[in-house]
Write a structure and sequence with these properties.
heterotrimer, A alpha/beta (302), B mainly alpha (321), C mainly alpha (334), A: six-stranded mixed beta sheet, B: 321 residues, mainly alpha, 0% strand
């Protein structure tokens, strides 16, 4: 090759061309943008006619890690038959509040708690903590199935109960019921003895749901359960949550405003440890009372 | 649905157990046993330390550390300066051999390791040494160093067969005890240096050898120091090798007349054999001397362990900001 | 596993690099050769003892002490060397003492580790960490000394009754050194290593599992036993293998404390079983070390060393197999 090849022609950017962006319709009627952008609610069973049964209540709950106050005098109610969503930006006490409901916050050495938490009207501190945790189950952000088979995972809570160990025959109906309720049974029914860690992320999280459901809790706490999952798994889990609503009181912490809009009946907005607003989902999302709530819900910060 | 039933209904699979009944008898027994084991551990540790302290101070006099032992066993009086020096000689010798050798092997295993079968074999070899009892290493030392090829390393007995026992030989075999510890600690230190440090050095045009010398080894100083100190501690505490490979004299017995070398190829004792010989198991039968020497030995070993703690606890350079 | 990439060939630093690699590789290969020689030499020296006895080497019959003395007193003519040895009492004692110490030690260590990790008050847990390391560093001769001067007289005078001594007095002397003191002190010696490894393993169980178990309403002990201990199984096996290797190789302390007669303690003797002397292979080497100068004795002692080498190799292999079979359920399975 004696001659040097000429460089390729330079492409010029057309500055004057029409932008290929779809114009939004003129919004001159004064409606807040919230109304058009709100996520649709999940198809759900009709709400019961009677007021939902109150299961848990916090009164002036405060939690501090050492000197730093994480939750400041929060009072809210958790009812069976509805989903309570705790929303708010990161680090504002939502997870801490959730973990105090089943006294898991006590596992952190520096944590101190003030105020009261009531389960069915009785103070939670009076209970043996393991008994409390059987009635108030929890699901974590990262799926955490034990290094055992699928069957052993779901049966774990039923086996390690203090009294005599039930036999495998006795456990089978309970395990398959829990797997059905979690929406996982069809996928694993032939592989119950396979290691749980071989499942995909979404399946693992549903396995954890089944594991929690197996002990028949009355309240279920969900700590951002879908944040590590793909959209399809997320949808399946949200449908499960809504289906469980009538039997179990559900509290879900979520970063995802659209998820909260999809599943929640009541919403509590927390900001820097304070409970800023608490009310029905429609009201908090469409016409929030507090300015801070309005800013957060419209995406102003967070 | 799952309404809050009467508290005392017969618990089926889901019956609520209230209060402490969630702890079965087996669980309570387990917790009790755990407490018992933990307290037993404390008691044993406390009694060993306190007893050694008590007996040691009872029988140790400061002059013992600085006076020579009487040549005959079973005579009262005399200190144990020679055994202390013997311990120092063997420890220094063993560490001087194990240190560079261990670091070399660790560097080769981490940075080069070609061919792969050789690397695996060397790794297994080091593990084999780690798992070999020191008494077997001692005997092996005898086999090797009793060959006439090595006759310059120890006093020669009758018929010109080498005795096969000397400080040098003992130190050399002791290095095998420390070797796996140095190799392990150095490898760990080298592994914990992140890739980007090496890549940065190569990107600057430095070859592997100078990267190792200038960047990686200085960064692994703490790990190497830990390994060497641990190895030294094990050498000082070992009795079997010294017992077999260092004769039975209480004092130094130099071999020949070359200064320094006569000491290394001579015989003597270390604190460990001194304690052993003066205990009822040896021929001395003087428990007071044994206690005093054991106290000093324990103090040295604990000081070394404390030094390892200090090295590892010191704030290390972090590789990420 | 090598790290990073080497610079391209042909650059100036390349030759230093090659030289360094050669030197370091040669050193490593030299050490490997040394170790290989050790194994070969020990077996070569030990072979005559095995070949003269055949499988009866491992069998019983006769008094081992007498047999060893006869070997030592062999006539000087190589053709007339005496090799007869039926080492069953040594084999049996080694298995008994090592097995006993490891079994009891593992149980004690697991319980202590659970105590330190979960039930101990925080100040005590912090104190126990360095204490355990301290115990692991104490030289074996010091354990032997304390045992010999405190435990043995106690057992010999206060625990063993006169009647028991009389019952076996024609066969052996019961003076306190023996099986129970040997196993006890050996257990105390190997426990700290196991405790350190198991506490580390229990502490590094992922929080997701421990919190998950707690959130299901399982009490602390159950969660520890069914989740943490289970997750730590590979580490426990590794610790047990390490402890067994240490126990097998313990020569000095046992020779001081477990009795110097190569006797096979007889369980049918009842309580006296625990006080009878027992001699392991390693302790036998120490006890008969001054007989190494006589050729057939030396070869017999090398045979003991060969047995120890085989046991260590077998032990490492067994540990490797056990840990591989546990990989199925750990996080690494993915």
């Amino acid at each position: 090759m004696d001659t040097v090849k000429p460089p390729p022609p330079v492409r010029r950017i057309q500055i004057e061309a029409e932008p290929t962006v779809v114009q939004a319709p003129p919004s001159g009627n004064g409606h807040a943008p919230l109304a058009t952008g709100m996520a649709p609610r999940l198809k759900q069973l009709p709400r019961p006619a009677t007021t939902p049964l109150e299961r848990m209540r916090t009164e002036g709950l405060s939690i501090a890690y050492g000197a730093k106050l994480a939750v400041n005098e929060v009072s809210l109610t958790v009812r069976q038959g509805e989903v309570l969503a705790l929303i708010g930006p990161s680090g504002c006490g939502k997870t801490t509040l959730l973990r105090s409901l089943n006294r898991l916050v006590e596992l952190t050495p520096a944590a101190t708690r003030g105020g009261r938490i009531l389960l069915d009207g009785e103070d939670v501190d009076g209970y043996d903590v393991t008994w409390l945790r059987r009635r108030v189950g929890m699901l974590f952000q990262q799926p955490n199935p034990f290094p055992m088979s699928i069957f052993d995972n779901v049966a774990y809570g039923l086996r390690e109960r203090g009294s005599k160990k039930p036999s495998k025959k006795q456990l089978e109906p309970a395990v398959s019921e829990a797997l059905h309720r979690a929406g996982l049974f069809e996928e694993v029914k032939d592989n119950l003895d396979h290691p749980a860690l071989a499942l995909s992320g979404g399946q693992q999280q549903r396995l954890c749901i089944a594991r929690s459901l197996a002990v028949r809790p009355e309240v279920l706490l969900l700590d951002e359960p879908c944040s590590a999952l793909d959209p399809i798994s997320t949808q399946t889990i949200e449908e499960t949550i809504v289906a469980l609503r009538s039997e179990i009181a559900i509290v879900i912490v979520t970063h995802n405003l659209q998820q909260a809009q999809r599943v929640a009946d009541h919403v509590a907005f927390m900001y820097l440890g304070d409970l800023v607003e608490y009310g029905e989902a429609e009201q908090v999302f469409r016409s929030p009372v507090a300015e801070r709530t309005r800013e957060y819900v419209s995406g102003g910060f967070g | 649905m799952s309404a809050h039933a009467g508290a005392r209904a017969a618990p089926g699979l889901w019956g609520r157990i209230r209060g402490n009944e969630s702890w079965s008898v087996g669980d309570r027994v387990g917790v009790g046993l755990a407490w018992a084991a933990g307290l037993l551990l404390c008691a044993i540790a406390a009694s060993i330390v306190l007893y050694m302290l008590f007996r040691g101070l009872q029988f140790l006099s400061f002059s013992d550390i600085f006076s020579h032992p009487l040549p005959g066993l079973g005579e009262s009086g005399g200190g144990f300066l020679d055994p202390i020096l013997g311990t120092v000689v063997v420890a220094v010798l063993g560490t001087l051999i194990a240190g560079p050798l261990g670091v070399s092997i660790a560097v080769w295993l981490t940075e080069y390791a070609r061919p792969a079968w050789l690397a695996r074999a060397v790794e297994s070899g080091v593990e084999i040494v780690a798992g070999t009892p020191s008494i077997v290493l001692a005997i092996f030392g005898l086999i090797v160093f009793q060959e006439s090829f090595f006759s310059f390393l120890s006093p020669t007995g009758e018929g010109a067969t080498p005795l096969g026992r000397s400080f040098f030989i003992a130190g050399a075999m002791m290095s095998l005890i420390a070797l796996p510890l140095v190799v392990g600690a150095t490898r760990e230190a080298l592994h914990s240096i992140p890739r980007h440090v090496r890549e940065a050095s190569y990107a600057l045009g430095k070859d592997r050898a100078s990267t190792i010398r200038r960047v990686l080894l200085p960064a692994s100083r703490r790990g190497i120091g830990t390994g060497v100190t641990l190895g030294m501690g094990r050498i000082i505490g070992d009795t079997a090798i010294v017992f077999i490979l260092l004769g039975a004299t209480l004092r130094f017995e130099p071999n020949g007349s070359l200064p320094g070398w006569d000491l290394l190829t001579g015989n003597g004792s270390t604190l460990t054999t001194y304690v052993f010989n003066n205990s009822p198991a040896g021929e001395g039968g003087q428990p007071e001397k044994a206690y005093a020497a054991a106290f000093v030995l324990l103090a040295i070993v604990l000081a070394l362990n404390f030094a390892v703690d200090l090295i590892t606890r010191g704030k290390g350079k972090s590789w990420t900001r | 596993m090598t790290q990073g990439g080497a610079p391209a060939e042909g650059q100036p630093g390349d030759r230093t690099d090659q030289r360094t690699e050669l030197v370091l590789g040669a050193l490593s290969a030299a050490v490997l050769l040394l170790i290989a020689f050790m194994i070969v030499f020990v077996f070569t020296k030990a072979w005559p003892s095995f070949s003269h006895n055949g499988l009866a080497w491992f069998g019983g019959g006769g008094n081992v002490d007498e047999q060893l003395t006869n070997i030592f007193n062999s006539p000087a003519d190589p053709d007339e060397y005496v090799y007869t040895l039926h080492a069953w009492p040594l084999l049996y004692s080694t298995a008994l003492i090592t097995g006993g110490a490891v079994l009891i030690g593992t149980g004690l260590s697991l319980l202590s580790a659970m105590f330190i990790v979960e039930f101990a008050p925080p100040w005590l847990a912090k104190v126990l960490q360095p204490v355990v390391r301290l115990l692991a560093a104490v030289p074996s001769v010091i354990y032997g000394l304390i045992a010999l001067l405190v435990l043995v007289p106690f057992v010999g005078n206060d625990v063993i009754s006169g009647a028991e001594k009389e019952s076996v007095q024609y066969v052996i002397q019961l003076d306190g050194t023996g099986l129970i003191v040997g196993v006890t002190v050996l257990t105390v010696m190997i426990a700290p290593i196991m405790i350190a490894i198991v506490t580390d393993a229990l502490r590094s169980v992922p929080r997701g599992w421990t919190e998950g178990a707690a959130a299901l309403g399982v009490n602390r002990f159950r969660a520890l036993r069914t989740v943490s201990l289970r997750a730590a199984r590979p580490a426990i096996v590794a610790a047990a293998v390490l402890a067994t290797a240490r126990a097998l190789g313990e020569a000095i302390m046992l020779s001081m404390v477990s009795g110097s007669h190569a006797f096979a303690p007889n369980p049918l003797d009842g309580v006296t079983f625990f006080f009878e002397p027992a001699l392991t292979f390693a302790a036998a080497i120490v006890d008969h070390a001054d007989e190494l100068s006589v050729k057939p004795s030396g070869q017999t002692i090398y045979a003991f060393a060969a047995i120890l080498l085989i046991s260590s190799a077998f032990l490492s292999f067994a540990g490797w197999v056990a840990r591989r079979s546990m990989r199925k359920y750990t996080l690494a399975a993915r």
